[in-house]
Amino acid sequence: MIDFSMWLDLPLIWGLLIATAVFLYVVLDGFDLGVGILFPFAPSNNCRSKMMNSIAPFWDGNETWLVLGGGGLFAAFPVAYAIIMPALYLPIIFMLMGLIFRGVAFEFRFKASKEKRWIWDAAFHFGSLLAAVMQGIILGNFIQGFEVTGRGYTGGPLDWANGFALLTGVALVFGYALLGATWLIYKTDDITQKWARLAAKYNVILVAFFMAVVSIATPFVDERIYKLWFTLPNFYYLLPIPLMAVSLFSIVVRDLNNPKREARPFLCSLGLFLLGYIGFGIGMYPWIVPFEFTIWDAAAVSTSQSILLIGTALFLPLILAYTAFCFWTFRGKSTHEAMY
Amino acid sequence: MFEMINLDPVLLARIQFAFTVSFHIIFPAFTIGLASWLAVVEGLWLKTGKNVYQEIYRMWIKVFAVAFGMGVVSGVVMSYQFGTNWSVFSDKVGNVIGPLLGYEVLTAFFLEASFLGIMLFGWGRVSKRMHFVATLIVAVGTLISAFWILAANSWMQTPQGFEIRSEGLLYPTNWMEIIFNPSFPYRFFHMLTAAYLTTAFCVGGVGAYFFLKKKFKEHAKVMMAMAMLMAFFVAPLQMLIGHAHGENTLHHQPIKVAAMEGNWEEGANIPLLLFALPNEETESNDYELKVPGLASWVLTGDVNGVVPGLKNVPADERPPVAIVFWSFRIMVGLGVLMILTGFMAAFLHWRKTLFTNILFHRWCLVMAPSGFIALLAGWFVTEVGRQPYTAYGVIKTAESISPVIAEQVAISLAAFVIVYSVIFGAGVYYMFKVFRKGPSLIGNDEKGYYDHSMEKSVAREVTKD
Question: I want to staple B195 with a disulfide (CB 3.0 to 4.6 A). Which of A69, A74, B33, B138 is the partner?
Answer without folding.
Answer: B33
